[in-house]
Design a protein that fits this description.
The protein is α+β, with helices and mostly antiparallel strands and 416 residues long. It is 35% helix and 34% strand. It has 4 domains: 92 residues, conserved putative lor/sdh protein from methanococcus maripaludis s2 fold; 84 residues, Elongation Factor Tu (Ef-tu), domain 3 (Beta Barrel); 53 residues, Beta Barrel (OB fold (Dihydrolipoamide Acetyltransferase, E2P)); 122 residues, Helix Hairpins, CATH 1.10.287.1490.
């Protein structure tokens, strides 16, 4: 007789299936719990820029554009106005110091010179005539004084004789008194003539001095006018290249009007334009450099122009040591303007991520998963190549540095 076999509810196969399902649900639940609240975005790696954080030398600098200018430029202004009569050289020519550039004409200045010259000649003649009259007057008074001296001598002898004759009762007392009165008069006249001669001599000296001073003043004025006539020929103040000369024949030039400039091409400077953001960090003697034809040249700031125009200010930089040969006025160069000394620092390459995050966080590559994980960082100084890392990253870390504009604000970038 056959025996009935009952089926078992919990077979090993069924138990294994149930166990597998439970384990699967547990794994899924664990993954869901682990990733709850974490936003992700799938990104292909061929569009990424991944940079490695490194420890290296860092120097803060900014690139600025500089224009080559002559170290010395002298303006030429017309000292006297006039009309251009002759043009000796053209704009752009090389000139020597003292070489004529333009010849101007000024009829009014010429007439003024001739009038002053005529006045001086008239003054000289007047001085001569006055001197002659004063000399004649002086001679006349001296002659009178000489005549009085002679009369005094003669009258003295006569007085002596009359006194002897009066004692001898030969002449009357009245005759003696007449001679004595004549002697008194001649003595008074002598005294007056002496005083007059003294005053006349002082007066003549003073008048001669005044006339001489007046003549000297007129001569100086004439010399100035003559110099003004000479300055109608405009000459090069220094040797160099002439520029800015636009005046043509027959054209009028006003007094003090600029008619060009001379550039000394034996030495140059670089005028750089700097963003106003760096105004407080730029000072005289600050250094920089640029490369030309494979050679490096050192510069230092010699002058800062404080005026801010269109968000930037300018500074002049001169060469330290050698200067490049063949450099030309107006040539543009890119100058590396140093803001700090070179020192060791943790560095991260610059990239478009900074515009999105402001340097507050980056996507750090997780070495275990290979995904980009949002990482808080603190960046410090920067130059055109690197950011200085202060916190959040260490040398050897790999960071996504391209722009994050397309990633939104995801916590994890799943790299495919």
């Amino acid at each position: 007789m056959d025996k009935k076999i009952e089926k078992k509810t919990w077979t090993p196969l069924r138990i294994g299936i149930i166990a597998a399902v439970v384990l699967g649900l547990g794994f899924v639940g664990r993954s869901f719990y682990k990733n709850a609240g974490v936003s992700k975005l799938n990104v292909t790696t061929d569009r990424l820029t991944i940079s490695t954080v490194e420890r290296s030398k860092f120097q803060e600098f900014i690139p600025v554009t500089g224009i080559v200018l002559p170290l010395r430029t002298v303006r030429m202004d017309a000292i006297e106005g006039g009309k251009v009569e002759e043009k000796f050289v053209e704009d752009g020519a090389s000139v020597e110091q003292g070489q004529p550039i333009l010849r101007l004409s000024n009829p009014d200045l010429m007439v003024n010179y001739l009038n002053q010259e005529a006045s001086i000649i008239s003054q000289i003649n007047q001085i001569r005539n006055t001197s002659l009259l004063m000399e004649q007057q002086s001679l006349s008074m001296k002659e009178q004084a000489l005549s009085v001296d002679n009369l005094i001598t003669t009258n003295g002898k006569k007085l002596k004789r009359n006194r002897e004759l009066y004692k001898s009762n030969v002449i009357a007392e009245v005759d003696l008194e007449e001679v004595e009165d004549e002697s008194t008069y001649l003595a008074a006249r002598k005294k007056m003539l002496t005083a007059t001669l003294k005053k006349d001599s002082a007066y003549q000296a003073l008048q001669q001095q005044q006339m001489t001073s007046s003549l000297d003043l007129m001569k100086r004025n004439l010399a100035i006018t003559k110099q003004s006539l000479e300055q109608l020929i405009v000459k090069a103040p220094i040797a160099g290249q002439l520029s800015g000369l636009t005046k043509e024949l027959g054209e009028s030039v006003a007094r003090s009007e600029n008619i060009g400039q001379i550039d000394d091409l034996t030495a140059f400077k670089i005028r750089v334009r700097i963003d106003e953001f760096y105004n407080s960090r730029i000072a005289v003697e600050q250094v920089g450099s640029f490369t030309l034809a494979g050679e490096d040249y050192q510069l230092r700031i010699s002058k800062i122009y404080p005026q801010v125009i269109n968000g930037a200010f300018e500074a002049d930089m001169v060469f330290v040591g050698k200067s490049p040969k063949g450099i030309k006025r107006g040539q543009s160069v890119s100058v590396k303007l140093e803001l700090s000394a070179e020192e060791e620092a943790t560095l991260l390459a610059r990239g478009g991520f900074y515009q999105t995050t402001g340097g507050n966080w980056v996507y750090l590559i997780d070495p275990t998963t290979g995904n980009g994980i949002k990482q808080t960082v603190r960046l410090g100084r920067q130059n055109p190549n690197y950011y200085e890392v202060l916190e959040g990253l260490k040398p050897g870390d790999k960071v996504i540095t391209n722009s994050y504009d397309n990633y939104g604000d995801k916590d994890v970038l799943v790299l495919k």
